[in-house]
Amino acid sequence: MNPRVAPVPEGLSAPGASDAAFAAMLATEELPAGTMRRVTRGDVDVLLVNTPDGVVAVDDRCPHMSAPLSLGTLDGCIVACPLHEGRFDLCSGFPVQMPTTGGLDPDGVYHPTWSPAGREGKVDPPGLKAEARRLTRFRRFRYYPVRIVDGQIEVALPV
Ligand code: FES
């Protein structure tokens, strides 16, 4: 049975995606429920994810500092980044856990650095790097339209 396609969260379509042509990315059997795959077209790395809400396509770049989320872990709709413990909800586009570096959330609200339980807190000496972390704002995901045709997952990628 073909997987469903998840609705794109309101206001989070990738710029230019609504006019883009669909292209086949992956056969549906290559993306079982609960899995994610990176597929590259040109210089765009796309993360295809089969969530409980259906298949979504976003950039394979963490909305924080661009690490490949395909190397992270997936739990339902929640993808965990391999770099700074950031966790993001692919079904809503919203963060669910700030990166350990702290910084600005998508609304521009500052969050301090933090350490996972059982780990020493990091000293963050003042200076340019600390300032860069403090002012790094991560954004919500931008979604590419997805459709399923003849057993293929197709994605509309702006050129
Ligand atoms: S790059 Fe993903 S949480 Fe920092």
Please describe what this structure looks like.
With 159 residues, the protein is mainly beta. Helix content is 5%, strand content 32%. The strands form 4 sheets. Strands 5-6-7-8 form a 4-stranded antiparallel sheet, with no helix packed on it. A 3-stranded antiparallel sheet has the order 1-12-11, with no helix packed on it. The longest helix has 8 residues, at 128-135. It is elongated and about 55 Å long. It starts with 21 loop residues before the first strand and ends with a strand. 25% of the residues are buried. Bound molecules: FE2/S2 (inorganic) cluster (FES). FE2/S2 (inorganic) cluster (FES) binds next to loops.
What can be said about the biggest beta sheet? 4 strands, antiparallel
- The proportion of residues in beta strands is 25-35%
Which small molecules are bound?
FE2/S2 (inorganic) cluster
**Roughly what is the average pLDDT, rounded to an integer?**
94
- Number of strand elements: 12
Number of helices: 1
Task: Quickly give the structural class.
Answer: mainly beta
How far is it from the N-terminal to the C-terminal residue, by CA? 31 Å
Ranges where pLDDT stays below 50 over 5 or more residues in a row are none
Strand order of the largest sheet: 5-6-7-8
The helix content, as a percent range, equals under 10%
The SSE string, one letter per element, is EEEEEEEEEEHEE
Give the CA-based shape.
Answer: elongated
Rg from Cα: 17 Å
